[in-house]
Amino acid sequence: MKEILVTGADGQLGSCLKEIHSNYPEYKFHFTDYKELDICSEESIVRFLNSHKIFAIINCAAYTAVDKAETEEEKAFNLNANAPKLLSIEASKRNIHLIHISTDYVFDNTNNTPISPINKATFPKSVYGKTKLEGEKFIQEFANSYTIIRTAWLYSEYGNNFVKTMIRLGKEKENLNVVYDQIGSPTYAKDLAKAIMQALIQSNSSTKEILHYSNEGVCSWYDFAKKIMELNGLICKVNPILSKDYPAPAERPVYSVLDKDSTKKYLNISIPHWEDSLKECLIALNN
Question: Which of 24, 27, 105, 128 does the annotation list as catalytic?
Answer without folding.
Answer: 128
